[in-house]
Specification:
Elements: H1 17-22, E1 27-28, H2 43-52, E2 57-60, H3 73-77, E3 85-86, E4 89-98, H4 110-113, E5 118-122, H5 133-145, E6 151-152, H6 164-174, E7 178-181, H7 182-187, H8 192-206, E8 210-213, H9 226-235, H10 247-259
Parallel strand pairs: 1-2, 2-4, 4-5, 5-6, 7-8
Antiparallel strand pairs: 3-4
Helix pairs in contact: 5-6, 6-8, 8-9
Length: 265
């Protein structure tokens, strides 16, 4: 597949062992609080853990409401009360929205998405009906094309068969970051490492933007990218492809993303 467009952030050389060992990830965009229902720390506890680990920018991305135990919509409508900074860590309140249909629909209305500082999107078995590889891939890609989606998460989970090459290609074409999920790799979710390795190699090939996410459901795991960094080293991802090395890079990307959104009343 020839590349059509390339995101402005996608430049740089591949990393060698020493560069990966010294690579600092200053941003963790994928974390959960007790509001998700199956996570076990508060936002304040996550922020303290982030500060101790040198994380400067923290995403608060609790699950959308179709996930059992997740917060109701009013929770997401009230995110404006969250402080911009806790324990010297800047906070990005948002959501990990669930894809709920083969059409790529999300479980958060646009009027809520439009107010959020961070919108992650992914597939979860209890929220999505499942389907063929083609149906799953189309749902994922349609969600990726949603102007209110900022980033896509954990495509390497084996729960749903996906065309990972097509997703990597479109990530580069659209400039939408896709996650290498540390939690999936840590638990080796029935083949996640192999899927994530294949996906990461496609990202190297097509040079799409990547985020490394802890997907922390407990404060001690905030800022843990150890397994994701091992995979980065293995496949040779370019440092400039990893969006969340730098808070400035993330914030600039999110600001540009919001400029491209449709105007709503």
């Amino acid at each position: 597949m020839p590349m059509k467009n390339s995101s402005a952030i996608l430049q740089g050389e591949t990393l060698d062992q020493g560069e990966v060992d010294t690579l600092e990830i200053k941003v963790d965009l994928h974390t959960h609080t007790i509001s998700s229902g199956h996570a076990y720390s508060t936002l304040a506890e996550n922020a303290i853990a982030a500060s101790r680990k040198g994380i400067e920018l923290l995403g608060m991305t609790d699950h959308g409401p179709t996930m059992p135990g997740a917060p109701h919509l009013y929770h997401f409508g009230n995110l404006g009360i969250i402080p911009e900074e806790l324990h010297a860590v800047k906070i990005l309140p948002g959501v990990e929205a669930n894809i709920t249909s083969h059409e790529g629909e999300l479980d958060i209305p646009i009027r809520y998405l439009n107010q959020m500082k961070l919108v992650l999107v992914g597939l979860h078995g209890i929220c999505y009906p499942g389907g063929t590889a083609e149906q799953n891939t189309e749902a994922y890609i349609k969600a990726m094309r949603n102007p209110y989606t900022d980033m896509m998460v954990h495509p390497g989970r084996p729960e749903f068969e996906l065309d990972l090459e097509r997703i990597a290609y479109l990530s580069a074409e659209l400039g939408i970051p896709v996650e290498i999920n540390n939690s999936s790799l840590a638990n080796e979710k029935l083949g996640a490492w192999g899927n994530c390795r294949r996906f990461a190699k496609y990202m190297v090939q097509y040079k799409g933007p990547v985020i490394l996410g802890s997907d922390a459901h407990f404060s001690d795991l905030v800022g843990d990218f150890s397994h994701a960094l091992s995979l980065v080293r293995e496949v040779g991802l370019a440092e400039e492809q990893i969006l969340n090395c730098s808070p400035k890079r993330v914030l600039n990307y999110l600001a540009d993303r919001r400029k491209s959104r449709p105007n709503i009343s």
